Amino acid sequence: MYQRTVSRGLSLLLPCVLLVAGCSQLPLDDSRSLLGTQVTITIHAIDKDRLSENQLPAVMQEAFEEVARIQNLAQWRQLRSLNSYAGVEPYEIGGELIALIDQSYLLADETGWAFRPDLGPLTSLWAIGTDEARLPADWEIQAALARIDSTRFTVHDTVTAMLEPFGASIDLGGVAKGYAVDRACVVLHDLGVTAAMVWAGGDLRVFGEKPNGEPWRVAVRHPRDPEQYTAVLELRGDRAVATSGDYERYLEVDGHRYHHILDPLTGYPSRASVSATVVAPTCMDADAYATALFVLGPEDAVFLADELSLPAMVIAAQEDELVTRQTSSFDRLRASDEAVLQP
Ligand code: AMP
Ligand code: MG
Known about the structure:
By secondary structure, the chain is an alpha+beta fold. Helix content is 31%, strand content 28%. Adenosine monophosphate binds at residues 115-116, 119, 123, 171, 173-174, 244, 248, 260-262, 264, 287, 290-291, 295.
């Protein structure tokens, strides 16, 4: 059996940033390798009463430190302990993790459980994107699904929670990057930054107005050609965009590709889509919605996105052709001159 694991740090979204030379340092951008991808922060404007330009490197540093903090939280010593104490006893995981899990369950409910945070037994079985990735036997998948269906998460007090039954496990891989992007934006804003973009592979958030009055431009990568893009969005104000794609992390076995977005109904990688992009107020929500819309496939995804008032675009492979469905609200965000833009 030939087996190959692929985990790409490729960007799914591409901010179109034009850096203009001048005496001001702004816009200023910096990138670090975090969360298994490249995280880029671009600061466009600051409140000059609270911040001077020579403080910008320190501001950048604090924002990246916050992303690193979430990365560590996301390696989730407490989360791993919550999972290993499943069915045994409550565990003190802290208020931040409880809030994250609670919000993830709300998102699960909203998306008809296409996104769900308790898929741990299944995601660890496949382990796509890690050295342990493998094609599980069908009985293993069915056993994991049964455990997921009986998972209960109970909050005991503000910091303590319990997971049941034994073997249940929470996986926040579908929202961790989005949450980290949100937190970086909060740090930047609290330190006096008035306009910025934070970008982590498939997840991106912008806030404030660019000083030149132009909208934020975000290019969505073509799912089959990394040199191309399928849409360019023009955003204003505080918005987040997330894309989930089947080309990000996958395992190849005997010429078949098994990617990292699992359908909670079947336990196998969802074949409903090849990429899903959604715009939402926060990046954590956008991150979960993108995963859910991917699982649902174009028709159901556009129906749900309309119901939730989310601009969204989903691409699927049907008979060797790519078909694209989008909400009218997504279409309205597309740049009118996108054909001439280079990502
Ligand atoms: P994303 O790349 O944001 O779509 O998130 C994919 C990650 O979320 C995977 O690597 C898994 O850890 C986890 N995941 C996979 N399928 C699902 C799903 N249907 N619901 C929630 N999380 C998922
Ligand atoms: Mg996601």
